[in-house]
Design goal:
Layout lengths: L13 E5 L5 H13 L15 E5 L11 H4 L1 E5 L6 E5 H7 L1 H10 L6 H7 L2 E3 L13 E2 L2
Parallel strand pairs: 1-2, 1-6, 2-5
Antiparallel strand pairs: 3-4
Helix pairs in contact: 1-4, 3-4
């Protein structure tokens, strides 16, 4: 018989990942797995089993693709006619790398209430410092 994990039984860890020199997309697929909890044997699809993830040095990751900076676009829409706004990858990386990381991870999580709760456990910081030193129990890759 398969054991179903209850939300009260979930143990959450804090994982710190240093983005310096890591590939952007490869790192974020690992982050999405950690946020969902798929790395745990007690994974249950309808329960938020994931860990908290802290990414430091967000602007220092490496990016592949010859023209990704100028060709890749992120769109947003307010719902009104003609209100589509687009930002280039390189502009978003320069202005707000935290938003870039959140957008990329959001696309890898479920598009439900559960996915929105999982995304709240992602903390991204541009620098080397973060305010969660009291919670840290694990060091990421």
């Amino acid at each position: 018989m398969t054991k179903i994990t209850k939300p009260s039984d979930v143990k959450r860890d804090w994982v710190v990942i240093d983005a310096t020199g890591k590939r952007f997309g490869r790192m974020l697929t690992e982050v999405a797995t950690l946020l969902r909890g798929k790395h745990k044997p007690s994974y249950t699809p309808n329960v938020d089993c994931g860990d908290y993830v802290i990414i430091i040095n967000a602007g220092k990751a490496t990016y592949t693709g010859l023209n990704k900076g100028s060709d890749k676009l992120y769109h947003r829409h307010s719902g009104y006619f003609g209100s589509v706004k687009s930002e280039k990858f390189e502009d978003l990386l320069e202005k707000n790398p935290v938003k870039l990381y959140k957008l990329a991870v959001r696309g890898m999580l479920p598009k439900t209430k559960l996915g929105r709760e999982m995304l709240k456990k992602l903390k991204v910081y541009e620098g080397n410092e973060h305010p969660h030193t009291a919670q840290i129990s694990k060091k990421g890759n």
